[in-house]
Amino acid sequence: MTGERAEDVPVGGGAAAEPTGAGTAEGVAADDPTAMPAAAGATGSVDFAWTPHPSDWRAALRTAVPLYRWVPWFAAAFAVFGVVVLVIGPTVPGVVALVLAALMAAMVPVTTWVSFHNHPIAAKAVTGSADGHSLRMAVSGAARSEVDWARLPGWSETGRTFVLRTPESGMYAVPHRAFGSGDGVEKFRALLAEHVGPAA
Question: What is the pTM of this model?
Answer without folding.
Answer: 0.62
